[in-house]
């Protein structure tokens, strides 16, 4: 059996931002390793220009003591900081953190927690706060009463000032049997997170982790992960609460998370694993290649796609690999456009660490993909 853990990656996990020698437009960094396994990062830039990255790290997803950690790229710096532990609790497994800087400047971090011996349908959403830009944090409080609620994508502020939190409701213990009954909701708060109203996404069973953007005034679109490992689905709303029934689009999904943002020029950027269970060898559960797609027509079509990470040759799907760091997986992306115009993408790199890459938007159209969806040129 081939070794899974690559010592050269461990050696490079020093947070230093490097320029790719073969592609000078591309910069990358492997974030410092805290615990053996890392997953599910999210990026956010503070008003002072610092770039923050949060993720969960521990022995393995779902096990006791898995923590929420944060690394910082100070404005003007070329090195990500050693991560700090924001939140952890023995007997609990923390997952899927995301950051939100409220209009009053308070930094909110939301994440899920579940008993380490329990299923995802027992998960709760916790909130911790920072009043100093993420250097120190409050004790956690439970945000929602609902069991099975799962975070993944950042909070959105609606035009009228209300907060919208996209959520998955987990009805099953995990992603195996019964996962096709998981569904999505949008929770909205008119009092800065004190109370929440649930907005349904009709007929969203098996469609989870909604990522959403406002494409034009009073038109929101959301894309969904497909538990059936086939396709992405799309829903629309005029107010953030009343959503259309999701419909299938041309982009594949492999039952892994995606993320979408609106760029400064109005284009959409979507990062996803460009594969499904019907594509490639082996087909089932592969989490590569990780690709970025650009849409210039509000997500109706995706005219440019380029691979960010294609993976190692000769390493197969997740099914044949044990639950240990080093397995072949490039997944759970976060995408953010910083004030200098560069697009940053952080993602799970073989469950060993988090990798951050950045590039200009023009970089996407200058490349191609080995994945399933290939736009006509």
TrEMBL record:
In its UniProt entry, what is this protein called?
Answer: Predicted neuraminidase (Sialidase)
Q: Which residues form the Sialidase domain?
A: 49-345
Q: Where are the transmembrane segments?
A: none
Task: Cite the Pfam families for this sequence.
Answer: BNR_2
Q: Which domain of life is it from?
A: Bacteria
Q: Which organism is it from?
A: Bryocella elongata
Record's Gene3D superfamilies? 2.120.10.10
